[in-house]
UniProtKB/TrEMBL annotation:
This is Serine/threonine-protein phosphatase. It comes from Nonomuraea diastatica. GO terms for molecular function: phosphatase activity. Keywords: Hydrolase, Membrane, Transmembrane, Transmembrane helix. The keyword Cytoplasm does not apply. Residues 163-370 form the PPM-type phosphatase domain. The chain crosses the membrane at residues 41-57, 63-80, 85-102, 108-127. The lineage of its organism: Bacteria, Bacillati, Actinomycetota, Actinomycetes, Streptosporangiales.
Amino acid sequence: MSSRPAPLIPPRVRAVLVRVPGLVAAVRFIRRGPLARDRNLLITLTVLALVIGFLAVKVSTVWFSPSLLILVTLVGGLQLRLRSLVKLLVGVGGALGYIAIALGPGRIGVGLTVTIVFTTVLAVLMARTRGKLGVQGLRGDAMLLELRDRLRSQGELPPLPKDWGGKVVLKQAGGSSFGGDFLVSMRDGNSVEIALVDVSGKGVDAGTRALLLSGTFGGLLGSVDDFLPACNTYLHRQRGDEGFVTAVHVRLDLDTGDYTITSAGHPPVVKFDAGTGNWQVASAKGVVLGVVPDLHCEPDSGTLRKGDALLLFTDGLIEQPGRDIDAGLDRLLGEAERLLPSGFRDGARPLVNAMASGHNDDCALVLIWRP
């Protein structure tokens, strides 16, 4: 059964309005085409600007201050297309000119003039940027927020059994929501695959490429047997000059605890051996992604037993200007010793904060342990 929405205008009123000359044509013009919303807002803001100018002269500049035109210009810069914004600015200029002629230039003042000029330039720049993106209003910001949320959800570990634990800590440079470090993971039955990736650069500069690669690498993870060689083939095919990409891939069997580590120019994975109480550096090696056409990795394998853990991290956690990377790794292992009293889950973020203090770089840490 189909249903139709109730008309907003009663039939009798509609019949009377239809007879009004030109009303139907005007309504159709306002509602016609994809630019209807932009046109309507332009008309509204232009009329508002002219009304403010008229009332400032006829009533009072206290109640209808010319500074209200700044708000009109800002709204136009946020919502209108560039062509429509230019038309609005003409209306704003006309309102200011009318006030200056009727009340004298002193009622506007140099300060207000400079502020309106600055606001005009800002509005034009915002309208041009949105025009290049092909979005209206604040939709561009909403898209970035959605991409950020998708990247964060993708960077979470899949649900693990009760006899396993996992923790992910991502800290971007400058407190940004985007960065060059990201995680992709998936679980298929009792098999878990984790890939920690580091894109050269930091903060927002590396965030755009990281957003692109996170979708690509996430699609490859679990779909191919050789994950890192497949990623290398994709990056080498791009033939771009956007910097290097390093990655480490871990395939873990949740039943037996067996794992295999492959690395492509990434800092080594560290394993905690509960039997000896020591941290051991994995021997997996490989060149950075996208440099050579055929990537050959030297994997490392082992078994996680009760109390063991795997620690994955990016170079932002151990690299500091003027210091050797081995010294940073030694410091990381020393700080990791403090994880043992508080537990891996509660100690992961303090470990990142301790290692990241004093320098501004993207940092990422992944902990997988077997209680």
